[in-house]
Every structure is written in C-alpha cells, then in structure tokens.
C-alpha cells in the first residue's frame, strides 16, 4: 500500500505530521510512504509548484495525503507558478472529479458553532463538489476594454461532466438519508441550466432518492438558517468550495473538515484518491502550533476507508476524534489553548483507549 505524502505550505506540514503519527500508531503491515514537495515550497526548491516528480509519485501511489498549499510570498507570481496551481493540477491530472466534504456536528461542540446550539445540533451533511470543471478550469485571461484591463474566466459544464458527479451524489444519498439537494444558479446561468436538466435525467435512475433543486443564494441562507435540512448537497466546483467553508463554521471550525477527492481509477485495495483538509495553508497561524490537526487526521481516515479498504481503522480514528472534540482538549479555533501536537497526543491516547 503506497501513500504519497504531500505536506505543502504553511500549516500543511504541521497538520500532516499529526496525521502521520496516527497512521504510525495503527502499525499497518505493508505500508510504504513517499514524501514530495508541492506548492510554494516546491516552487522555491524546483521552480514549479507541481514538479513532474511529485506528480509521478502521486500517480504511482494508491492514495495521496495532502496538507495545504499557499504562500503569501508567491501571491504575485504569474498564475502558472502560484502554489494553488499544484492542487488544481493534481485534481485534474489525476482525474479526481468527485470531492466529498462531510460536515457533521459533534455532541458537545454545539457551543462552538457560529449558529445557536439548537440550530447547530442537526447538522449532518455531505457536500459532493464537482472538482474538474466549472469556472476553475475554463479559459481565462486578461484583455483590454473601454474600462481598462479586464479579467475574464469562462464557466462551463457539459452533460458528461454533470452526469458522472450526479451519479456520485445520488449513490452517496442512497447510503445516507436518501435526500439530495442540487445547488445551482439556473435562473441566471446557462451552465446551471444544463446542470439542472442533466441532474433531473440522472435522477430517473435513483427513484429511492428524493431530489430537490435550490439556487445557491438560497442554499447559503438555508445553511445558516437550518443546516439540518440538508443530507447530500450536489454542486459545482465554485459553489461547493464556498458552501463547504460555510458548513465548517456551522460545525465549529474549518480545522475540523476533511475531504476525499476521487476519480474512477481502482487500485488493488479500493479507489485511488487524494485526501486533504478543506482548509488552506493559514499563513496567519503557521509556525505557531495553533493549527487544529483534526481535519488532516480525518482526511487520513477517509484515505484508509476509500483507498485502502481499511474501514475498521477509519472508524476507529473517527471515534477517537469524536472523543477528543467533545473533551476539553481544544485548539484556539475552538476556544481552547491546546497546541497542534497536544491535540495529536489526545487523539493517539483516545485511539489506544479504544483498542
Ligand atoms: P485558510 O483556510 O488557510 O484560512 C482561513 C482562516 O481559517 C484563517 O484565519 C486560518 O487561521 C483559519 N484556519 C484554517 N485552517 C485552520 C486549522 N487547521 N486550525 C485552526 N485555524 C485554521 O484560507 P485563506 O486564509 O483564505 O487562504 C490561505 C492560503 O491557503 C491561500 O494561499 C489560499 O489560496 C490557500 N488555500 C489552499 C487550500 C488547499 O491547499 N486545498 C485550501 C484553501 C486555501
Ligand atoms: C480548496 C481551496 C482550493 C479550491 C484553492 C486553493 C485552489 O480553496 O481546496 O477548497 O478553490 O478548490
Ligand atoms: Mn476552499
């Protein structure tokens, strides 16, 4: 079982280190780890945010554990050299079109939600975000206009792209509470009109799933009004990016939410995938031991489940995390003073108490 470890920038290496301590504690036989440079650090060392050797290492693995990329020192580089291009490149080069971002509340954590505790209590949703298309990957550029320099980005989705992510969404809903909310802006965007019509077509194959459509502006409002109404949210790349950060504040902190990015490639043990926290490199707290490593640790759990067929170990990590989150070991993001490694220590203790 080969895992490529790509810690990246800022708090990426700090939170990934804690996930690796958890992996180590599981003592899985036959595990081989490779580590590669990605993001700003890769640009500084190799002149490119996604060096060819890093991409090849990822391709050759059964799964990728990713930290975060982003470096203020690189903010003025031309787009192709920006750290963020590394994660976009990995997602598209590896065909990882389905991004799963679960957001569920923890008993005992409702007080840290940005919502009232009784509203926060019901949250248990999964954002299924399309990851290879949308305005992220359309043509873009700069041109001159009467109003001076003009930036432009083309937004598009074709039926095939919508169909494959819709299947992911419906299958996920079947395994959960059987409800799927497709989020779009079909009252304005042609992209969304094709999106909605295609989702309706695919829905015919899933009569057991209840489908509703919601405009993204309403969805943003509904999520803070009553997040408990959502089961699976199926949406495009840009709306999914925004709504998942919002969901994290409903749970309590962006430092808690993990993600899996999956494609079609199967490995000997499961589905090839890349696993990362939904948060970024958090330059404002990098190097201070303030980052919450839970999102990275839960990303490891998703990796074990989806790519390595290790459901038992994934479940154990999730149970250990739930214990820690409900305890008084909390980082600054959750109103406490525990450091990154102290939170890691607590997860390791909870894990060994389970076995
Ligand atoms: P961010 O997610 O890095 O940080 C947003 C806020 O949340 C900050 O105040 C940060 O301190 C806090 N935060 C984030 N993760 C945390 C954690 N684990 N524990 C405690 N607090 C945490 O988003 P941003 O500030 O908008 O972006 C910073 C950089 O990260 C940018 O370069 C951006 O492009 C990049 N980014 C990368 C990814 C990725 O690698 N997938 C995701 C998002 C942003
Ligand atoms: C995320 C990030 C990325 C995205 C950026 C860094 C390209 O915000 O993983 O959520 O927009 O997808
Ligand atoms: Mn994001």
TrEMBL record:
Enzyme Commission (EC) number: 1.1.1.85
GO molecular function: 3-isopropylmalate dehydrogenase activity
Record keywords, A-Z: Amino-acid biosynthesis, Branched-chain amino acid biosynthesis, Cytoplasm, Leucine biosynthesis, Magnesium, Manganese, Metal-binding, NAD, Oxidoreductase
Residues annotated as site: Important for catalysis: 136, 185
Keyword Metal-binding appears in the UniProt entry: yes
Chain sites annotated for binding substrate: 91, 101, 129, 217
UniProt cofactor note: Binds 1 Mg(2+) or Mn(2+) ion per subunit.
Protein name: 3-isopropylmalate dehydrogenase
Species annotation: Qipengyuania xiapuensis
Protein encoded by which gene: leuB
